[in-house]
Amino acid sequence: MTLMRDEIREQPQALERALKEGLPLIRNIARRINAFQPDLVFIAARGTSDNAATYARYLFEAFTGLPVSLAAPSLFTLYHRPPNLKKALVIGVSQSGGGEDIVAVIKEGRKQGAMTLALTNNPESALAQAAADVIPLNVGPELSVAATKTYTGELGLLALLAAELSDDNGLRLGLERLPSSIDKALQLEDGLKHLANQELYKNARHCLTLGRGYNFPTALEVALKLKETSYIFAAPYSTADFLHGPFALAEQSLPAILIGANGPAIPGLLDLAKKLTAEGVELLCIGDDDGLLKMATSRESAFRLDLSGISEALSPIVSVVPGQLFAMHLALARGFNPDKPRGLQKVTSTK
Amino acid sequence: MTLMRDEIREQPQALERALKEGLPLIRNIARRINAFQPDLVFIAARGTSDNAATYARYLFEAFTGLPVSLAAPSLFTLYHRPPNLKKALVIGVSQSGGGEDIVAVIKEGRKQGAMTLALTNNPESALAQAAADVIPLNVGPELSVAATKTYTGELGLLALLAAELSDDNGLRLGLERLPSSIDKALQLEDGLKHLANQELYKNARHCLTLGRGYNFPTALEVALKLKETSYIFAAPYSTADFLHGPFALAEQSLPAILIGANGPAIPGLLDLAKKLTAEGVELLCIGDDDGLLKMATSRESAFRLDLSGISEALSPIVSVVPGQLFAMHLALARGFNPDKPRGLQKVTSTK
């Protein structure tokens, strides 16, 4: 039907391969990172990869204790006033590996003596050449402009790196369960397609996407997919940030996508779901928590994930999948080609 | 007319007082920070204050060389897995000082041995009590729900701290020029009010706000004001990030607010302005660069700032002002009360 759909559906196999092929390399790199004893993880990325970097931010701080900073590349490329990265682990994340600004951050880090690492689907790219170490995504070529399997691949390999750095067996075991959990999430497609063809969603010009903690990056990534493929002004927020001003956007018949997995973020999601329902907002809920799924406006707008054996920390690698499918079907319902969004190319390089 | 307007118009005097009263205290704190030799600045904030934190991110990295990380409070409050902050300067920024999550970050930092600092308009607040050092904003009570003078106050005092930490006389001299520059920006009000009453803006349900580098936080803050007061889905982006996907949103008659000051961010803004114009996007430009102002769709939508003696690094303290006025007049034009946005209270505490 579309390349985007093919690539969404390849994710269980692509991720399984990426994790398997990445393991020995990542184990080796993790050992050297621990020997280097960085005092900071500094990650540079754009677009979908930046959402993966935001995920890594939560994961690395929680599992390694290292503070994480997400780079502002303009300080490197425009102002030539980069921060001190001598004792940092500097990671560049890019599907294409072609972004000039991401390469500049890696080069500066390396010049200063940082440990540098590229995570890219193109091991021949400028980014791969600039970094001392390279983790190839190994998810196969991605042809659709809207990135999907490279996103889950990036998340999976960053989680594998966190597991190896922290020697966390819970993460390791959870990673093994991901492909079959994604496979089950793919089976939600018919329901998502049905919903995308309802007038409320088909005609929406704006919406909210909401998550907290580990699934805040999922809200960011689902919003980006909706923007890229369906030209919807999707406003992504952590449920906490949303209460500091943007809540004023809540109104009758506004669609909101709430994403969460069993864990400490759920109570805040439920509270917000109640407040939004009181304003007449239409809730589409994605997750494995009964309470959250019950908050969906109708049974048709509740999408249950099977996250057995997968902790909340790894749930974003599954919970994004219904959002990818929904964005794709919404584009088709609106008469757009999700493989070729207007105004975009597959490789974008900014300075 | 409105409290928000009064508070916007108070900004020259409020900032002047804040800087004057803050100087001896901030000089003393800066000396102790330099003696402490932090290896990281870690800033926690929400809403408008989080946009001030994003500004501080650019300023501190550029002027002190210290890497900056913007906190993910859920790691403290929900997951109880905070990062290592032993050698960090931990700053909490909050108008009210009442946010439970921001207090939790400060407390954890202090427990770990970090240097802790609260920047708040309420020196009796929980945040002020939690931190070892407090910088009071001293901008007077802010009564409008939409924060304005506390934002420019936060920016000014964070810039003063950067100036003292880096002993940078350019910043110090520029800070003295800010009140008169803001005063001149306030004179743009009639033109902004006129534009806000035009059908294109009055009826807009969504728009873009765009800036790069130092003025990326300005794009964030103007978007937040538009959301809070006028319920517009304003999508804020750095001009670089905008090209990585969100450019697909560009279409005929979409309003976009471009903000920039003379400096290395301008060429990228101009390139993007051309691309947006080719798609039929309506450009409202704010800044002091002739080229940028010429890109405005009409002469009526070009708003010239007087930034003489003020470097790009300090320009956000002025360039936000037309955005504040525009958001307020847009709310009035649409029949909303900007002082009392629907669903919001002045003090928001999240966990």
List keywords for this structure.
homodimer, 351 residues, alpha/beta, Rossmann fold, 2 domains, five-stranded parallel beta sheet, 15 helices, 10 strands, 50% helix, 15% strand, globular
Tell me about this structure.
The structure is a homodimer. Chain A has helices at about 5-10, 10-35, 45-65, 75, 100-110, 125-130, 150-165, 170-185, 190-195, 200, 215-230, 240-245, 265-280, 290-295, 315-335, and strands spanning about 40-45, 70, 90-95, 115-120, 135, 205-210, 235-240, 255-260, 280-285, 300-305. By secondary structure, the first copy, chain A, is an alpha/beta fold. Chain A folds into two domains: about 5-165, Glucose-6-phosphate isomerase like protein, domain 1 (Rossmann fold, 3-Layer(aba) Sandwich), CATH 3.40.50.10490; about 185-335, 3-Layer(aba) Sandwich (Rossmann fold), CATH 3.40.50.10490. In chain A, strands 2-1-3-4-5 form a five-stranded parallel β-sheet, sandwiched between helices. A five-stranded parallel β-sheet of chain A has the order 7-6-8-9-10, with helices on both faces. In chain A, helix 6 (about 125-130) links the parallel strand 4 and strand 5.
